[in-house]
Design brief:
The chain is an alpha+beta fold. Helices cover about 40% and strands about 15% of the residues. It is built from 15 helices and 17 strands. The longest helix is centred in the middle third of the chain and has 20 residues.
C-alpha cells in the first residue's frame, strides 16, 4: 500500500519486506496509485459516494506483527461512503426458489495490513512473518441489514463476483485475499439491536454461514437462560463448528487516532484534465464492466431464467459463456438449455478438466438435442442418452444418432392404442376396481396412479408422447377424465 515490496502468496518467510514495512527509522510512506484506483472503481460499482478529498490517519495499538505500533487507515474521512449491494439469496434450507437481498454500505476505506504471527506451541514462542505487513487493504463496512447466515454467505459470494469482475481483488479467500469479520447480535422482535460479538477472520463462504448460525443460536441460548451476551471478539473453529472466545472488548480501547503526518490529503478530480497531484476518476468510470447483477437481470429479462438459474450461470463464467454461445442457435426453451449447461456441461467440464467450451458436446449440438425434445420428437431419457453418446465421442450428427438408434417418439395412434390396451389387458383387477360404480373419486384416483406406475415400468413408455397416451388410455378405461 505504501511501499514497493512485492506481494506474493506462500513465499519464503520475511522475503518480501521493505524497509518501510519493517518500520526502519527514517523511511516514509509512498501511496500506491493502483490501490487508490482499485478503491475508486469498487466504490463506483457499489454505488458509493466518493469523497473527492479523503485523509489518512494513524490507528495506534501494539501487536508484535505490527512493528510501527500503528496502522495507517482512514478514520476521519474515508475514500467513499454510502452505497449498497444487492445479492440473490438461493438457500434451499429456507424452502425458497430465491429472492433478492440488499445491504447498505457504511463506508469503504483504504488501509495497510499487519504481519502474521506464527505460534510455535512446542517451543512456547511466537514467530513473526512480515511478508503481509503493508499490503493494501480495502475495507468495506456493511450496515446491520442481514438476518441469517445464508444471507451473509450470499452477500460475500456476490462481493467476490463483483471484485473478480472489476479485477480489483482476486478474492481468493483460501489465500487470505478476502477476509470477513462478522458482527452478530440477536434481539426480540420490536426491541433495539442487542449486544454484538465479532467473529474475526472468516476465510470461506461456508465458514461465514456456519459461524453466524452458531453464534445466533449461542446468543439466543444465553439470553433464554437469563444470561448476558458479552461484547467480545471470537474466532470460528471449522472442525468443531463453534466460535471460541479470543478477547474481551468490553473495555473500550483507545486507539489514539491522529492524522498521518507523512501523507498529504488524497485528492481526486472528475474531468479530463491531467493533474499530477490528483487521480482522475473519469477514465476509471469509463472502464466499468457489466456487473454480475446486470448480467442476471439480462438473463431473466431476455431469456426468462429464474433467480436461481441466472445465479448459477453468473457464478461460473465459463458456463455463462457456454450459455451465450447457445443463444445464436435459437433454443426453443432457454430454461432447459440453462439446466443442461449447469448440469451435464458442468459435470463433464469438471471430469475432463477442460473449459466448458472445449468439451466434446458443443453448444450447437446441445441446442439441437434440447429442441428435439421440446418438439416432442424424443423423450427426456432419449435426450440424456444422445448427450451421453456425443460426450463419449460419437461423431454422427444429432439427428442421425436419433434415427439410427431408433429413439424418435412413435406418434402412430394405433401403436399407442395397442400399448394402452396391453396395460388394460394385463391389469384386469386394477381396471375392475377403477370401473366400479360405487368407488369414490379418491379411491379411483389412487387406482389410476397404480396403473400409471405399471405404465412407467414398460419400456415402450420412453417411445410415446405421454399426453397422447393418457388421452387414449383414459378413453379406453371408459372415463374422459379423473
Amino acid at each position: 500500500m505504501f511501499s514497493s515490496a512485492p506481494h506474493e502468496y506462500n513465499c519464503p518467510v520475511n522475503s518480501n519486506v521493505s524497509y518501510f514495512d519493517a518500520s526502519i527509522p527514517g523511511t516514509l510512506p509512498v501511496l500506491n496509485r493502483r490501490c487508490v484506483e482499485a478503491g475508486v472503481l469498487t466504490s463506483m460499482a457499489l454505488g458509493c459516494n466518493i469523497n473527492m478529498t479523503s485523509f489518512f490517519d494513524r490507528k495506534h495499538y501494539f501487536y508484535a506483527d505490527l512493528p510501527a505500533g500503528y496502522q495507517i487507515t482512514q478514520q476521519r474521512r474515508p475514500l467513499a461512503v454510502g452505497g449498497s449491494l444487492a445479492f440473490p439469496v438461493v438457500d434451499t434450507a429456507l424452502g425458497k426458489e430465491g429472492y433478492q437481498g440488499t445491504s447498505d454500505i457504511v463506508q469503504l476505506q483504504l488501509e495497510q495490513d499487519s504481519g502474521k504471527s506464527l505460534h510455535d506451541t512446542e517451543g512456547s514462542r511466537s514467530l513473526i512473518d512480515l511478508n503481509r505487513c503493508g499490503a493494501g487493504l480495502m475495507e468495506i463496512v456493511f450496515g446491520p441489514d442481514l438476518r441469517h447466515g445464508g444471507e451473509a454467505a450470499a452477500l460475500v459470494k456476490e462481493l467476490v463476483l463483483v471484485l473478480e469482475k472489476l479485477d480489483t481483488c482476486k478474492a481468493r479467500m483460501e489465500q487470505g485475499e478476502l477476509r470477513v469479520d462478522a458482527n452478530i447480535s440477536v434481539r426480540r422482535q420490536g426491541e433495539e439491536l442487542g449486544v454484538r460479538t465479532e467473529v474475526k477472520n472468516l476465510n470461506s463462504v461456508r465458514s461465514v454461514a456456519r459461524a453466524i448460525e452458531y453464534e445466533v443460536a449461542r446468543q439466543v441460548m444465553v439470553l433464554e437462560q437469563g444470561g448476558v451476551v458479552e461484547n467480545e471478539t471470537r474466532s470460528f473453529d471449522f472442525g468443531l463448528n463453534k466460535t471460541i472466545t479470543m478477547r474481551d472488548k468490553e473495555a473500550k480501547q483507545d486507539y489514539r487516532f491522529m492524522p498521518e503526518p507523512n501523507l498529504p490529503p488524497l485528492r481526486l478530480c472528475d474531468d479530463n484534465s491531467e493533474q499530477q497531484d490528483m487521480i482522475n476518476i473519469s477514465p476509471i468510470r469509463s472502464s466499468m464492466p457489466e456487473l454480475p447483477a446486470q448480467v442476471r437481470a439480462r438473463l431473466s429479462e431476455m431469456y426468462g431464467l429464474s433467480i436461481g438459474a441466472a445465479s448459477q450461470l453468473v457464478e461460473w463464467p465459463q458456463l455463462l459463456d457456454y450459455f451465450f454461445q447457445c443463444v445464436p442457435f435459437s433454443p426453443t426453451s432457454y430454461k432447459e438449455v440453462s439446466v443442461l449447461v449447469t448440469s451435464k456441461v458442468q459435470e463433464n467440464s469438471i471430469q475432463a478438466g477442460l473449459p466448458a467450451l472445449e468439451i466434446i458436446l458443443k453448444p450447437a449440438a446441445l441446442v439441437e438435442i434440447s429442441n428435439m425434445r421440446q418438439a416432442k420428437e424424443i423423450s427426456y431419457g432419449a435426450m440424456q442418452q444422445v448427450m451421453e453418446m456425443v460426450l463419449k465421442g460419437d461423431t454422427r450428427e444429432v439427428r442421425d444418432i436419433v434415427k439410427e438408434e431408433d429413439l424418435f417418439f412413435i406418434n402412430d395412434s394405433d401403436y399407442i392404442e395397442k400399448f394402452a390396451q396391453d396395460i388394460i389387458s394385463d391389469n384386469t383387477e386394477l381396471v375392475k376396481k377403477y370401473r366400479k360404480d360405487v368407488i369414490s373419486k379418491k379411491k379411483q384416483e389412487r387406482v389410476y396412479k397404480s396403473l400409471l406406475a405399471v405404465v412407467s415400468k414398460d419400456p415402450r413408455v420412453e417411445r410415446v408422447d405421454m399426453a397422447t397416451f393418457v388421452q387414449i388410455f383414459k378413453k379406453l378405461l371408459g372415463e374422459s377424465k379423473i
